[in-house]
Each structure stands twice: as C-alpha cells, then as structure tokens.
Amino acid sequence: ERKTKSFNFAAYHDLETIYSFMDTLVASHPNLISKVKIGSTYENRPMYALKFSTGGEKRPAIWIDAGIHAREWVSHASAVWIADRIATDFKQNRAPVPSILSQMDIFLMIVANPDGYVFSHISPREFHRLWRKSRSVTSNPNCPGVDLNRNFDAEFSGPGASDDPCGEDYRGPSAQSEIEVKNIADFITSHGNFKSFMTLHAYSQLLMYPYAYSGTNAPDQPELHDVATQANKELYSWHSTIYKVGSIFHTIEQASGASVDWAYQRGIKYSFAFELRDTGKYGFLLPADQIVSTARETWLALRYIMQYVCDHPY
Ligand code: PAY
Ligand code: ZN
C-alpha cells in the first residue's frame, strides 16, 4: 500500500512537508521514482526533480515544473497530487501512464523557487503570502528578489520585464544571473533529450505556448495550438472549467526571459505554460478545497500532451 495514502492532498503544505512527501513517494516506488538534486538555491536549499523512469539511458524526456512563482500555491499543490497520480497509475497499470513511461522519462520539479516559497509561508501572512520572486540580494537593498520567469536566456532584457529591482517582474542583472534559473537551464541542456517542457503557474485558466516575447507566430504555432486545444478539451471534460488557449503574448501579455520561450528556442518543440485556477475571484489565495479538482483537470491535459509527445517523435 502506498504510504502517501494518508497525505492530505487537499491542503497547502510548507516546503519541508512537500520535501518529505517526495521522500515518501520515492520510498514507496523505488523502481519507478528517484529524486534528482539539480543544485541549490540562493539561500542554499536543495532543488529537486522527481524522475519517473522505467530504465534506459537518457530516454526522451518530459519536463514539468511548478512554483517558479512563490505565491502560486495551487501549482505546487497540483504538482504534488500529479506526482502521486503518475506513481499510482503506473502501479495499477492504468493507461496511458505505463506506455508513456515505457518510452519516455518524466521529470517533475514541484518547487522551482524554494526560497520564495519558504518566504511566502512566513507570518504575518499579509506581508509575505503574495511574494512572487526569488530571494537574492539586488542592487537595491530595499527590494530583494528576481522574477525567475524573466531571467531565462530568451530575449533577456527585451520589452515585458522590469529593470527595476523593486518591480514584480524584475528580470535580474543578466540572463541566468539567478542560480535557480541556471540550475534548471543547465540540467535541461546537459540532459539533451527533453522533448516537452511544461510549466505550471496560477492564476487565469490559460493553456499557452510560445512566444511570450513577441506576437510573431512560433514556427510550430499551428501544431502547438492544435495540441493545446485538444488538451484543453480533456481538461474541460472533468468539471467544465473554461480555459483559453493561445500564445503567452496573445493571451496574457508580453514577457521576455520566460522559461517556455527559452525551452522552445533550444529546440524543445512541445513547450507549454499553464495558468491554473481561478480567474480572479480568489486569485493566488485559491481555497484549498479546490486543489484536488484543479489538479485532476490539469492532469487530463498534461496526460494528453505527454501521450501526444510520445506519438510524435522528432
Ligand atoms: O510563462 O506563464 C508564463 C508567462 C506569464 C506569467 C508571468 O510570468 O508573468 C503570467 C502571470 C504568472 O503566472 O506569473 C500571471 C499571474 C496572475 C500574475 O502574477 O500576474
Ligand atoms: Zn507565475
């Protein structure tokens, strides 16, 4: 019996609890899951990805991260649920997970910004809960932190990011100046065989693809749009939650230095960004009783995309 059964998936947990959940999950599925340390944060916390693999050497792989923005708690919580779901589906031989994992590896990073996440838990809540950025020191002693999703080496410093350390979307002094971004980029680059890159944010209910930096269509725009549209149908089928599909530029706003643009420009064709629930009623403070339904519908979209990636090697 999986020991994560007693874990409360319908609650928000702190970093320590999520990290111990990961250890429990790995211990319960030693033949499928391992914990990969990809580096340490600015404040020297470990950064982990869960690796789901049935063997092989550097198989084609799927990257999923959550929590690059600290306050987007439903993304971390959904990733926790999804990790457990992948493990359970594999163990119970529930399609399509076993067949996906017979061809590809999945790397899931539940907390991409551990320092920011820890900060967002400090009380009093009104001062910390809405923290978005990392926690590194900047040129302005009053304004720490860099927006990690503006710090990737993709049109870095172009329009759609702030050069002011006090800005919520401060890009940082140079591309990959943030150790968290560098760790992720280095890991993906040195692995060399990622075929899909997916990042979980909140909120707005959007399923997006590149580009963020400009309104120009990505070369694969028609296919990405089609995949996202089909994935969105799967998502909708669960609770009729309405998402919009489109490029980041066209659905939200221009953003430079974003992770999906970086992944796409490095040849990872199937790059998608999710904005999970809701559309603003609760925003970042989504009630915990919506975690499992959010995770469950998101899973249907992720599962569709993973299967599609398996079926469309390149
Ligand atoms: O990669 O999803 C992306 C780019 C767009 C997001 C961003 O990095 O700014 C959009 C915002 C986010 O999830 O961080 C949207 C939320 C509601 C916000 O903070 O404005
Ligand atoms: Zn975000």
What is the CA-atom radius of gyration, in angstroms? 18 Å
What percentage of amino acids are in beta strands?
Answer: 15-25%
Q: Categorize the overall geometry.
A: globular
Strand arrangement, largest sheet?
Answer: 1-2-4-3-5-8-6-7
Low-pLDDT stretches: none
The average pLDDT score comes to: 97
CA distance, first residue to last residue: 38 Å
Ligands (ions, cofactors included): octane-1,3,5,7-tetracarboxylic acid, zinc ion
* Sheet of most strands: 8 strands, mixed
Number of helices: 10
The chain-level structural class is alpha/beta
Instruction: Name the helicity range.
Output: 25-40%
Please describe what this structure looks like.
This protein has 314 residues and is an alpha/beta fold. The protein is 36% helix and 16% strand. The protein contains 10 helices and 8 strands. The longest helix has 21 residues, at 291-311. It starts with 14 loop residues before the first helix and ends with a helix. The mean pLDDT is 97. Residues 69, 72, 201 line the site of zinc ion.
Key features?
314 residues, binds octane-1,3,5,7-tetracarboxylic acid, 8-stranded mixed beta sheet, binds zinc ion, single chain
Topology:
Elements: H1 15-28, E1 33-40, E2 46-52, E3 61-66, H2 73-91, H3 97-103, E4 105-109, H4 114-119, H5 125-128, H6 179-191, E5 194-202, E6 206-209, H7 221-239, E7 244-247, H8 248-251, H9 259-265, E8 270-276, H10 291-311
Helix pairs in contact: 1-2, 2-10, 7-10
The site of octane-1,3,5,7-tetracarboxylic acid has 14 residues, from strand 8.
